[in-house]
Amino acid sequence: MNANKRKKVMIALDYDPTAQKVAEVGYSLAKSMEAEIILLHVISDPVYYSSLEYSPIMGFTGYVDTLQHTNLGSLKEATLHYLEKTRNHLADETIKIVVKEGILSETILETAKELKVDIIVMGSHSRKWLENIIMGSATEKVLNNTTTPLFIVPTKQNK
Which pTM was predicted? Predict the structure, then answer.
């Protein structure tokens, strides 16, 4: 890795309430490296966003939104607004925002390669054990298929 080249950290966010923690930890990591920061959200299934599982969304303290969008255009708009709120929460206008469509893990890997990122930051919810057994988690799929270092932020809520 060229020491003179500015490093890039890509923070992949979903709409889970724990996204705030993932963004803050990823941001701290990137700032400690003096790296360029990219916030990424992948729209993988527009119908999923209209389900009760994603509504209401509480990603950042004081920011509650409801995504009842099945129209891809309005979903992209809402996603951009969400990432802009995240950037504002982190108080850093230099953060780049990227919204992509596709299969979650594959799109994260493709975007990391396309943007030549040095580290991918993701959260691991560790709570849908049956879904993970059947399909595998996106974080696990990225971990098993990446050549880019992956920084996993555990977000499981202790009870």
Answer: 0.81
